[in-house]
Design brief:
Low-confidence stretches: none
CATH superfamily: Ferritin, core subunit, four-helix bundle
Mean pLDDT: 96
Number of helices: 5
CATH class: Mainly Alpha
Helix content: over 70%
Number of domains: 1
């Protein structure tokens, strides 16, 4: 079963968005590398790798459905932030954008009655719930901590353990 041209293009756009996400997280990691927050840097690098994995999952799916992968240009990411909070708020906004894009893709698949693509996208829908919660929790903690150095140190340490655990 071949993909429609509309879904093929939408999936290619999603690959681009996932790779843009990876690049955005790498830009955030670059910011944190210039600060004492090595745990936040590790968290962002880990997240970047996850986003590349998401793009590759779609890349593979396109091939399995006899679709054509068309890679797109990716813009330079931001790599300067006023604070850890600003970086994580930006991350949350980006995850919300990705979630909205996947929901639109799912809607398009359902409208075309392309049930294999809808089934494939279910994993991404579930993953985005996890992604938004993970980043949202960090944003809430950073808002609570404010400029408290001890709190920032502890949260940075905690964030760095994420990469070690997986």
């Amino acid at each position: 079963m071949k993909l429609s041209a509309t879904l093929e293009q939408a999936l290619n756009n999603q690959i681009s968005l996932e790779l843009s996400s990876a690049y955005a997280y790498l830009g955030m990691a670059a910011y944190f590398e210039q600060t004492p927050f090595s745990g936040f840097a590790a968290w962002m690098k880990f997240q970047s790798k996850e986003e590349v994995g998401h793009a590759m999952r779609i890349f593979k799916y396109l091939s399995e459905r006899n679709g054509k992968t068309t890679l797109q240009a990716i813009a330079q990411p931001k790599s300067v932030y006023a604070s850890a909070l600003e970086a994580f708020q930006t991350s949350l906004q980006h995850e919300q954008k990705v979630s909205a894009s996947i929901c639109s893709l799912y809607d398009a698949a359902m409208a075309e009655k392309d049930f294999p693509t809808a089934s494939f996208l279910k994993w991404f829908l579930d993953e985005q719930v996890e992604e938004e919660k993970s980043v949202g929790d960090l944003v809430a903690k950073l808002e609570l901590i404010g400029d408290n150095r001890n709190g920032l140190f502890q949260l940075d340490h905690h964030a760095g353990k994420r990469a070690e655990e997986k």
